[in-house]
Design a protein that fits this description.
Strand order of the largest sheet: 3-2-1-4-5-6
Order of helices and strands: EHHHHHHEHEHEHEHEH
Number of strands: 6
CATH topology of the largest domain: Rossmann fold
Number of domains: 2
Distance between the termini: 15 Å
Radius of gyration: 16 Å
CATH architecture of the largest domain: 3-Layer(aba) Sandwich
CATH superfamily of the largest domain: HAD superfamily/HAD-like
CATH class of the largest domain: Alpha Beta
Shape: globular
Largest sheet: 6 strands, parallel
Number of helices: 11
């Protein structure tokens, strides 16, 4: 893999630095069954990972989007500690970034409250210098706006940055923002799904990611 070292490293949260996919899938399944009377498949749930809840529920049932969001968030927040786990090696990856002096942070479609809880569940409270969440932008991945907002916050340009994510929408947002798109295979999407959108690199382990980032 050939990717020039970038000064700024941005990460997706769900399925990239925190193992939240089982929680998200369970939350979608429970919410849609309770409110709409049908249970989505795992593949359907995967399609919604990385997108904002507002967009997802408005697309599914616009007249009941608010109810769906309230139910989802109530159950999701209450069950974080039951489901969310750290990915092996991510703590050490963040420690290496802290020691490197490079700029890094998270740009996620999660709401701030949920993002903070997810970070706490994996031992990263207070260790992510930049956290851009759903509340910070009007549009969300695959729009580049969340990434561009994060870069503007730290004063970095797209050519100086890389975005690391596990979902197709992450790669599309990175490409639209003009930053290096790095896909990881331990989250929601398969390697084939990620490869189909042409990221700059695909990594299979956190150690591979550290090497790619020059850490």
């Amino acid at each position: 893999m050939n990717l020039p070292t970038r000064a700024t490293v941005l990460f997706d949260l769900d399925g990239t630095i925190a193992d939240t996919v089982p929680l998200i899938v369970a939350s979608f399944k429970r919410t849609l069954w309770e409110v709409l009377g049908w249970e989505p498949t795992f593949e359907q749930c995967k399609e919604w990972i990385g997108r904002s809840l507002t967009e997802t529920f408005t697309g599914l049932a616009p007249e009941r989007a608010d109810e769906l969001m309230i139910r989802y968030l109530e159950w999701n927040l209450a069950n974080h500690r039951r489901f969310v786990r750290p990915f092996p090696g991510v703590d050490e990856l963040i420690a290496a970034l802290e020691s490197s002096g490079r700029t890094f942070g998270v740009a996620t479609s999660k709401r701030l409250e949920s993002a903070l809880l997810s970070l706490d569940c994996v031992g990263l409270t207070g260790r992510i210098p930049l956290l851009a969440t759903e509340e910070d932008t009007a549009t969300h991945k695959p729009s580049p706006e969340p990434l561009l907002h994060a870069l503007a916050t730290v004063g970095s340009g797209p050519a100086e940055a890389v975005y690391v994510g596990d979902a197709v929408v992450d790669m599309l947002a990175a490409q639209a923002a003009g930053v290096g798109a790095v896909a990881v295979t331990w989250g929601a999407a398969t390697e084939d799904e990620l490869a189909a959108v042409g990221p700059a690199a695909i990594v299979h382990t956190v150690d591979e990611l550290r090497d790619l980032l020059g850490l």
